[in-house]
Records
---
Amino acid sequence: MELDTSSVIDNEESFYANAVQYWSEIPATIDGMLGGFGCISQTDIRDSKLLLKQLFNSKEPPQKAYALDCGAGIGRITKHLLTEFFDKVDLVEQNPQFLNQAKLYIGPKLQTKIENYYSVGLQSFVPEENKYDVIWSQWVLGHLTDSDLIEFLKSCQKGLKPNGVIIIKENISSTNDIDKDEQDSSVTRPLSLYRKIFTTAGLDCRRQVKQRNFPKGLYTVYMFVLKPLPNNTYTNMQ
Ligand SMILES: C[S@@+](CC[C@H](N)C(=O)[O-])C[C@H]1O[C@@H](n2cnc3c(N)ncnc32)[C@H](O)[C@@H]1O
């Protein structure tokens, strides 16, 4: 039997509700966003910048007009990464307090680049079509079930402009198992499951890059650069 999140999530409604509850009690700080590991933020951003620079130097790069930050929290990635590369950024985040804090954290100067703050869960969010050059999702997709993640990725594809890409940066489980975190109500998927989900959603994984220099004991983190498959067909997940 193939492994998927239905094997570890018995009740989807409480899976989502428990995550809302968990994040409602977390301080709107960098440490809060990173589970007490605020110290890794710079290292994280450094490798993400390198990835974007390489992407812009590649054949058929995306434009630098518009990015979407998914599960944006207080806007850590928007502030330190996306506003450096893109003219405009939208944030989508389910916790409205974090978005309020993002307005302060991003600051008045960079604020001019922020077009929209969407306060909604990714499982219910549909990006406007043909809008974004890069859709960045980091440390949030473990809060979606497989089927919601696949639907989300399909709708993100429609939200991309020509040459646009989806970039995912996520923890990866060290075995072939899905790790369930009961505390924050999330799952950590193995690499094989992410790759299968990408294919099912009609996405081609153009790059898979490991984050460097994180402290020992943390999950391995990968960045994936995804583009719609040429024929743009979706497959059914078996
Ligand atoms: C680990 S934090 C990461 C924040 C940000 N991506 C970063 O790297 O700084 C996870 C964020 O995802 C948000 N989140 C959790 N479940 C979500 C969902 N279903 N839809 C949108 N955001 C969600 C949380 O409120 C929190 O802000």
---
Amino acid sequence: MEGSGRLLCILRQISRKTPIYSRLQKATYCSGIKTKPLDEVYQKEYENIEEEPAVQCGPNKAERVGPSTDTLTDTFGRQHTYLRISLSERCNLRCQYCMPENGVELTPSQKLLSSEEILRLSEMFVKEGVEKIRLTGGEPLVRKDVVEIIRGLNEFRDLGLQTIAMTTNGVTLARKLPALKEAGLDLINVSLDTLVPAKFEFISRRKGWDRVIKGIDTAIDLGYSPVKVNCVVMRGLNEEEICDFVAFTKDKNVDIRFIEYMPFDGNKWNSKKMVSYLEMVDTIKARWPDFSRMQDHPNDTSKAYHVPGFTGQVGFISSMSEHFCGTCNRIRLTADGNLKVCLFGNTEVSLRDVMRASPDDAELRDVISAAVKRKKKQHADYLEEIEDFKCPGDGMSMRTLSTSCTHSFTTLMPAGIVSATFLSTPQPWNTQIRQCWTGDEESMKYWETDRRARLAEAAERGDIEEDCDVTEYKQDHDNYRNISENISKSDCDSLTHVDTAGKTKMVDVGYKPDTVRTAVASATIHVGEKVFPLIKENKMKKGDVLSVSQLAGIMAAKRTSELIPLCHNIFISGVDVSFVLNEENHCIHITSSAKTAGKTGVEMEAIMAVSVAAITIYDMCKAVSKDMVISDIRLEQKTGGGLTGRKSLDIQLYMVWVLGLTGLKSPDIQLYMAWVQGLTGRKSPDVQLYMVLGPGVDGAEVSRYTFVYGLESRV
Ligand SMILES: Nc1nc2c(ncn2[C@@H]2O[C@H](COP(=O)(O)OP(=O)(O)OP(=O)(O)O)[C@@H](O)[C@H]2O)c(=O)[nH]1
Ligand SMILES: C[S@@+](CC[C@H](N)C(=O)[O-])C[C@H]1O[C@@H](n2cnc3c(N)ncnc32)[C@H](O)[C@@H]1O
Ligand code: SF4
Ligand code: SF4
């Protein structure tokens, strides 16, 4: 709807929502060109309009919830009644999808907004029609004057401010929330991406899971309802926890909001890591078929759902697959005082400079109005620029890729019976994630360098928040060390493939018991500077190099016995191939893991997988350059084999759970682990856990414990 039609619509909205006629004095044409005051031109129409239900108007069907003035109305008729203020650029976590490991470059403190400046700007925004202010960041709670700021905002209720909200990582929430509430905080959103403490540490590169849970519980205890919990879902990292998170809403009044992973500068986003809203709904419906949609609130970013009978609810923030720009009512203020009219927009205008130059609000209003009028219709333009972004129509291919991820477990719940399939290998969890979290070189480096030293450095820099226990960060991380440290080098004392007469023979493994065996292999292909960017940006004419090579590797592993003469044909229960791109050296590191439950090992399959994946990369890229070198094909580690294997399992534990978790919790597993550690003298013993779960036992819960301890578990 263009011109006067849209304007009429706006007028209808305003008449419905705004009893104060004077607000109309400031309204202008939606084209953004300043014109005569509305009362002169459209008085007649205004008078003829009766109150009526919400009208969706304009090409974007903008829903007006608030009576913001023209200053905050954009050219698409969207009224911006929701201001998000970043209180700090700093953060006490380093979530991989959000911040680089060493944090962001910090603005000098004199350039940051003081609390007085934040309050002055807020007051002006509220006078212009902002009804909701959300404090965010960085991490808002690292700001020392946060309580004073909320107290100051609370003074603006009479001016029209209805809601003061905060989004926090929750690490220090439990302690600070009573004061925040007393100062006037109405709503709280807490971010939590995993229910597995050790995984939390991997994702956020800091400890603190238990603190966040405590923060959520404190918020519930203090009467916040619902407490919204934000979970960014990333394939290969936490997607398998979606149902666990839904189960979390069974008895807790929380609103779990699954967020589609969004691309931001340098956060290594790629479409394969993104799990779309519809895919998540499918996953949940497979377990709870009556999982259903609820009524959304206007302007909500999330689509509300629930499992009937559950206390809490679920939401999906589908910024990528189904954007909600049409009803956008948000603007943002950065910690250094820039106004950002769109989360994805590049344009920012400094309100700080205008404000510091003049005590008069009029100039500020003009600058804000001009910026709001420049706001684009939606962020799709930005997404189209991201070559890797594909609409979730191709969700199937994403799903296909994810099925090769060996560490993930599925929790299958046919009515009343709990069973779970655990495919994790007996390595510390971080190694498993490293294999699955493809292409993330930064994470690889992180685990490979001495984190204690780096944490001490961070503490010295003051990067770690004052009230976070630094000593906690410095704790020994032995638990997470790669198990390969503990596996002695293969004792090649005899060559079993050659018989005494020097002829070849296939070793009879018939007498060996079936045991679970895993192998990890790696290879490197140096592709050179011409080819590297084409692979990285997925621009190779022949197709998606990494996806094709991944499939080639997996297929090759399955056919190893046909190609290597004396190899046994074994049943492979899982195989995964992943890649890490090394920009500096223009090479790709390929890792594979293979798994079987049989009489002989799977290292040949793992080695085959990386070899063929490397050759396939060569094949896909040879038209661009033939200067590629495949090197360093090797076995990284091998586990399993029971008492007859060279790198034998330390122990197999059998456990039976029939009475639910009351009788068996994390400490029990800890106890067993201590016992096995004592028995074997190894810090990370190689343990296979067989579990028989009875009805009423939460398989997912049990799996979390075993996952944390890096146990191989079979149910
Ligand atoms: N596209 C887009 N996504 C946003 C915007 N604001 C928040 N989000 C998404 O919503 C997620 C959760 O943000 P929160 O800080 O909890 O805020 P919120 O969802 O607006 O909170 P409510 O006020 O409870 O609706 C973010 O991680 C983003 O993914 C926005 O302006 N545009
Ligand atoms: C940037 S954080 C700031 C507030 C606070 N530090 C926190 O983590 O809640 C606000 C929200 O943005 C989400 N977020 C950050 N990076 C994201 C990304 N790449 N994709 C989707 N959501 C993201 C976070 O999970 C969090 O819920
Ligand atoms: S806690 Fe929030 S601001 Fe900090 S790194 Fe994580 S998402 Fe980003
Ligand atoms: S991307 Fe921009 S326009 Fe779209 S909802 Fe977010 S802030 Fe609004």
